[in-house]
Specification:
By secondary structure, this protein is mainly alpha-helical. The protein has helices at about 5-25, 30-45, 55-75, 95-105, 110-120, 125-130, 135-160. Keywords: DNA-binding, Sigma factor, Transcription, Transcription regulation.
Length: about 160
């Protein structure tokens, strides 16, 4: 990969990588840091990365960086700082989009990732498998389970609303 190809990759994929990361962590500063780290890692390996595979490399690297950050933060979390109001259904909801985002946040990390890659970013099952080191069958199972949970969660919320 040349410097020109690297700059072109930054122009083409930085927004998509940023949106993907931001949808998962909902913190603009952390998302920007992850995107910057991702492109830094690409630059360090630019001679080894084929220009045809740069998009896959970027999303895969961003995914793994995001997972590493999430795991580090989970280890640092303290139970006495948990807000019980965030984990209850006592609030009145008026926006289905808000309910959907809350439901997605409750998914296990791997299910959340594959659903985000499939439904928000439009990746194929095969591409998601390559990005997450899962088989196509595993990706399909995780997406099925995630969608089933989302459907049940939204159905329960409609009863509450």
């Amino acid at each position: 990969m040349t410097v020109k190809e690297f700059n072109l990759a930054v122009d083409q994929y930085s927004d998509g990588v940023y949106r993907f990361v931001l949808k998962n962590i909902k913190d603009e500063d952390k998302a920007k840091d992850i995107v910057q780290d991702t492109f830094e890692k690409l630059w360090k390996k630019h001679s080894d990365v084929n220009n045809d595979k740069v998009k896959s490399y970027l999303f895969s690297t961003a995914y793994h960086t995001l997972i590493d950050l999430t795991r580090r933060e989970k280890k640092q979390a303290r139970w006495d700082e948990v807000d019980d109001n965030k984990h209850s259904f006592t609030d009145g909801y008026s926006d289905l989009n808000e309910i959907l985002h809350q439901a997605v946040d409750r998914l296990p990390e791997i299910q959340k990732m594959v659903v985000m890659l499939r439904d928000y970013e439009g990746y194929s099952y095969k591409e998601i498998g390559e990005l997450t080191n899962l088989t196509e069958s595993q990706v399909k199972v995780y997406i099925f389970r995630a969608r089933k949970y989302l459907k049940e969660y939204i159905g329960k919320m409609e009863v509450v609303v």
